[in-house]
Amino acid sequence: MAKLLKILDYSLANKAYSIKNTEQAILDANPTYLKDDWDKSCFNKLKSSIRKHYARRQGRKCAYCRITINPDGSGNAVEHIMPRIKKPQWMFVLHNLSISCINCNSSKGKQNTMRQHENNYGHSPNHCPNDTIEFKIFNPHFDKWSDHFEIQDEFFLVPKPNTKGPDTYKFCNLHRYIIVLDYIDELKIREKSFKSITKRLRKEKRVHVKEQLEIAKEAILDMIENN
Ligand SMILES: [Zn+2]
Fold it and tell me: For residue 227, what are the domain limits?
């Protein structure tokens, strides 16, 4: 799966959006104190630029699950790695921003993604930490995806133990078997993936997991039959 990992493994290190002077003036004039400040119309143009920038820099992939997203980011969420309900002051901090699919964004929701601060007073509202260690979950600005996740048996996204993978998996509910489907054609692994899912289905007992696997299996079968 080395080829797939290579496709999935973009990095945002040193590729954060850079705020233009005119945009900075708008931000200075409109400090954000409440999560809904995000919806102020004065930020619309900036949000659209941020969405386009990250969609391109992330190679059209969700920050977490890596499913493909629209080229201009439309229909996808500007993702606040630390949710804006928790830290509204950080909603335009660039290393707290990326783009994600709606599923990851809504699964993550309002959960606190920062590690407990050493002094127990929490992180300062005026300073979003610029360091991977402070984030409990994967942050594409600092972390390498393949250090935290792997693809097993030609199909299954699996978090690596003792990394940020398990927390990210839980926060984003990455237990969704549609992710690798986007890359199956590019990698020419339809048959291998189909076999892998069929094998997993035989031993899987959990009903909700079986349902997801059946959906993925049907989708691959359609791809094979319509080729
Ligand atoms: Zn996602």
Answer: 188-227
Closest to 126 measured CA to CA, from 92, 151, 155: 92
Residue 178 lies in a domain: no
Q: Does a structural domain hold residue 180? A: no
For residues 59 and 159, membership in a common domain is answered with yes
Residues 13, 110, single domain; the answer is: yes
pLDDT digits (tens, 9 = 90+) for 21-47: 999 999 999 999 999 999 999 999 999
This prediction's pTM: 0.88
Task: Give a yes or no: residue 182 inside a domain.
Answer: no
Q: How far is the CA of 109 from the centre of ligand 1 (A)?
A: 13
Structure tokens of 102?
């709606």
Dist. CA 101 → ligand 1 center (Å): 4
CA 118 to centroid of ligand 1, rounded, Å: 30
3-state secondary structure of 39: helix
CA of 178 to the centre of ligand 1 (A): 10
Q: Count of domains in the chain?
A: 2
Specify if 140 maps to a domain. yes
Ligand 1 centroid – CA 66 distance (Å): 6
Q: Where are the alpha helices (DSSP H) in the chain?
A: 2-8, 21-29, 44-57, 102-108, 145-148, 165-171, 181-187, 190-203, 207-225
Distance 32 CA to ligand 1 centre (A): 26
Residue with the bigger pLDDT between 8 and 51: it is: 51
Q: Identify the band that residue 11 occupies on the pLDDT scale cut at 50, 70 and 90.
A: confident
140 CA to centre of ligand 1 in angstroms: 13
Distance of CA 27 from the midpoint of ligand 1 (Å): 28
Are 150 and 78 contained in the same domain?
Answer: yes
